[in-house]
Amino acid sequence: MITCLLLAAGLSSRFGSPKALAKIRGKTVLAGQIEMLLSAGIEHIVLVLGAHAEQLRPLVKAEPRIQAAYNAHYQQGQTSSVKAGILQVSDGSDVLLLPADFPFVLPKTVSALTEFYQKNSPLILIPAYDGRKGHPPIFSYKLRDEILQLDNSSGLNEIIHRHQPEVQLLPVQDKGVLAAFNTPEEFVQIQKDFT
Q1: Which of 11, 47, 159, 190 is deepest in the core (most CB within 10 A)?
Q2: What's phi and psi for 119, nearest 5 deg?
Q3: The pTM is what?
Q4: Quick one: DSSP state of residue 55?
């Protein structure tokens, strides 16, 4: 089983409002990501909330395949959110990791990643566009304890570096795996690039 950790706990301080609630073609980024994940065959999503939990929580109430996790330590960064989410993941489930500020990943990319992962069982699988690593990576359930022991000041790149020989890249024709935004200007630009 593969569970998606959808990370939407951050402060979005450079954006000025919750990035997950920014709208693309009349739909919030978060709603678009959830739709994309479900259409790609992801059956279980853990939405990690934090800074703007009350604004985001209503988006998940109607969907039984989504559960919310609250990261009380969201000010300590993304690793704290990953850890809060992993605690809600069923034992033995591998984890697909998607931050809320990657709104243009294609469903066919997620499907390709999960299919490759299930056939080949690498420890870590990372999509790559034009030779550059992107999101969403998949981490084996075998790394659960190691991730939970990470210091919140360390990124998951530390785990990737530790296990470099067991990391596989999957080339994809999807520049959305590299396309994140942090500021309103970047959000305007990213929409021009993809729409």
Answers
A1: 47
A2: -80, -35
A3: 0.95
A4: H
b vs e for 91-120, b when ≥16 Cβ sit within 10 Å of the residue's Cβ?
Answer: eebbbbbbbbbbbbbbbebbebbbebbeee
Enter the DSSP assignment of 135.
Answer: S
If one counts every other C-beta atom within 10 angstroms of the C-beta of residue 63, the result is: 13
pLDDT per residue over 127-175, tens digit each? 999 999 999 999 999 999 999 999 999 999 999 999 999 999 999 999 9
Q: Which two tokens stand for residue 1?
A: 């089983």
Calculate ∠ Cα 169-172-176, nearest 5°.
110
Contact, 46 vs 4, CB < 8 A?
yes
Tell how far CA 60 is from the center of its chain.
16
CA distance 78 to 91: 22
Cα–Cα distance measured from residue 155 to residue 119, given in angstroms and rounded to the nearest whole number: 27
DSSP class of residue 51?
A: T
pLDDT at 64: 86
- The count of C-alpha atoms lying within 13 angstroms of the C-alpha of 35, restricted to the half-sphere facing its C-beta, is 9
User: How many Å apart are CA 105 and CA 65, to the nearest integer?
Assistant: 20
Considering just the CA atoms, what is the radius of gyration of the chain in Å? Answer: 16
User: For 84-99, what is each residue's pLDDT tens digit?
Assistant: 999 999 989 999 999 9
